[in-house]
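User: My instructor asked us to take a sequence, write out its structure as tokens, and then describe one feature of it. I'm not sure where to start. Here is the sequence I was given:
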Amino acid sequence: MPRPHGVVLLFTFLVAALLTGAVLAPWLFRAGEWFVSMVHTFHHEKSPVLGWFAEKLEKSDFSKFFNRSMLISAVFWLWPFSRWAGMTKADLGLERNRLRWQDLLIGFMLASSLLLVMGAVYFSFGRFAANPKADALSVLGMALFAAFCVALMEEWFFRAALFGLLLRAMKPMPAILFLSAFFSIIHLLQPPDEIVVADNAVEAGTGFWMVGQIFSKFGNANFLIAQGATLFAVGLILGWARWRTKSLWLSIGMHAGWVFGIKLFAGLTRTPKGVNKQAYLPWIGEDLRIGATPLIVLLFTGLIMLGWLILREFGLRHLPKEK
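Assistant: Let's start with the prediction itself. The structure tokens for your sequence are:
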């Protein structure tokens, strides 16, 4: 039986994940409501685990459950599609990285520091102000935890499994370009911020309605330019890092650094009263991900990464050979 083309497989995977996620989302939402009611019924609100989880669920609207549903669906379909594609460990093209800890640390420091410097400039211009209610240690801990969880999961998914799949059908550069576009599309499949679904309005077909609202955003050119270009640049940089190093350590470090910077800045700052969020566009958006300035900083980060790749390749040539 011939193996399916990588591009066909990716789009089939996307459709399967979307449909499954749309079906699952209302059920996941109702399950969350049931769990919260059980915690209240048995008076476990102060439990360090059950109470904390119930509080998080209670504060989450349908959009957040929809996002989690899409993630669960993508993870669910990954194994069947890998089997269908006939993927093996050798197809991933990953090798042992002798500079893994340097790659991880430099990637993290490079991505997070430049992003936070940009945030500091935003702060000095008055676009953002300190959040007096923020607990700095709590925000720092949550930002680190989220950063490495997201980076590990997404790099294995995109830059390991999917990139290895594409390399069987095309050369590295076209594969990086295509995967970067796919990466940006996946991340743009988020419900619009202005969409609010009342709890009592969630029905079996609400997930499919949400999918329609998501795709309506793709007709907005400003939205695609503001967020799509930045996501595409992120995909290019991470894809190039993974290909040149033949490992995930550098891409995980950079991905974690960006997520960390975004989460830390968002947790410690707020928009001052009276500031028009649209006044600074197209240069500065609502967070560190949106606008022309983040795109410029990303491209500069990519240039510095290329310098590190040249240095690491020189260093690898002078390391003693492993026995």
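For the description part of your assignment, you could build on this observation: DSSP finds ten helices and two strands in the chain. Try explaining in your own words what that tells you about the chain.
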